[in-house]
Amino acid sequence: MKYFAGIDVGSTAIKVAVVNEDGQISGVHVTPSGSLFHKNSTDALHALLNKLSLQRDDIHYLIATGYGRKLFKEADDSISEITANAIGAFETGKALGGVRTIINIGGQDSKAIQIDSNGHVVNFAMNDKCAAGTGRFLDVAARNLELDLEALGDMHFQADVAPLTINSTCTVFAESEIIGLLAKGHGKAEIIAGIHYSIASRTVRLAKRVGIEDRVYFDGGPALNKGLVAALQDELGRELVIPEHPQTTTAFGAAILARNEFFAEQSLEPA
Ligand code: ADP
User: Fold this and answer.
1) Is the CB of 150 under 6 A from ligand 1?
2) What DSSP designation does 239 have?
3) Residue whose CA is closest, atom 2 of ligand 1?
4) What is the mean pLDDT of each run of 10 residues along the chain (271 residues)?
5) Is 25 in contact with 92 (CB distance < 8 Å)?
6) For ligand 1, atom 23, which residue shows the shortest CA distance?
7) Cα–Cα distance between 251 and 87 in angstroms, integer?
8) How much is the pLDDT for 271?
9) Could you tell me which residues come within 8 angstroms of residue 267 by beta carbon, excluding any fewer than 6 positions away?
10) What distance in Å separates the CA atoms of residue 271 and residue 48, rounded to the nearest whole number?
11) Angle 135-144/188-210 helices, nearest 10 degrees?
12) Helix (H, G, I), strand (E, B), or coil: what is residue 97?
């Protein structure tokens, strides 16, 4: 059996996905990016290979994507995260009823991508200038509120008053605003719900720039946060399609493309 890998060297987390020659996912691995992007990417790849009892030579083609993709020079090819995300979401979305709009929130940026019925990108918009609508905002908020990042999702539903309005348009100012709200005696849950709604309304504005069509797929690490999912569904006024592994869709897309490029180069049809 031949295997193919995608490695998404993100601003916050490195994601690796391996697929077999049928394009089925064999495994995924997620690890913090840290400051040593190349070393941590190599370690992440080997950690997944070990988990799957595979050798490096079993990987016949590897494609790097993401913010730090150029640093992973041993990849056979590299592609933009927009393309990789679109392929990953299109393939994953097939079993979930199909998707045409993708919303991705990452560690330091957010994106909205519109794809056609064949999975090709027709339009996209990206916010990489302001961290207030991204995972970074959630990381900072969790630290200020002395909570684990994973706890934010459940806390969202514990607010017994309406979510607070967070006005700051920048993470640094939002940090002061959160501290100010705590000092006024507001509860953590209402602050968290306010943060989720603030990210959700920014994200909807971004998605409206590309046009929201049909079923909307939500991925990236923050899609693991059920409170944010609920706020985004509320702001969008529709249900979101959330994959089982939302953080690794882009790495999966790169792995699928690696498989397809390998067979195209060999002019071979996969078995
Ligand atoms: P990037 O590709 O830019 O590195 P990711 O898609 O990996 O970004 O998302 C990273 C963000 O995901 C983090 O900043 C964090 O806010 C969020 N995140 C990661 N794991 C979880 C989790 N278990 N629950 C909630 N949020 C999470």
Assistant:
1) yes
2) P
3) 10
4) 97 97 97 95 98 98 96 95 97 93 96 95 89 88 94 94 81 85 94 95 95 93 98 96 96 98 82 55
5) no
6) 150
7) 10
8) 55
9) none
10) 24
11) 170
12) coil
In the numeric block, the tokens 């306010």 are attached to 194
Nearest residue (by CA) to ligand 1, atom 18, is 221
Q: What's the length of the chain? A: 271
Asked whether 135 lines ligand 1 (CB < 6 A), one says yes
Closest Cα to residue 246, out of 229, 230, 226, 222? 222
- Per-residue model confidence (pLDDT) at position 64: 98
106 lines ligand 1 (CB under 6 A): yes
What CA–CA distance (Å, rounded) separates 196 from 258? 35
Tokens linked to 68: 């730090």
102 close to 90: Cβ distance less than 8 angstroms: no
Domain architecture of the chain: domains with CATH: 1-78+247-271 (3.30.420.40), 99-238 (3.30.420.40)
CA nearest 81: which of 70, 63, 101, 67?
Answer: 67
- CA–centroid distance, 4 to ligand 1, in Å, is 24
- Cβ atoms of 259 and 4 within 8 Å: the answer is yes
Strand partners, 101: 114, 216
The single-letter code of the amino acid at 20 is N
Distance 9 CA to ligand 1 centre (A): 13
220 lines ligand 1 (CB under 6 A): yes
pTM equals 0.94
Q: Please identify which residue in the block is written with the tokens 């097939």.
A: 94
* φ/ψ of residue 83, rounded to 5: -65, -45
> Which helix or strand (DSSP H or E) is residue 78 part of?
strand 77-78
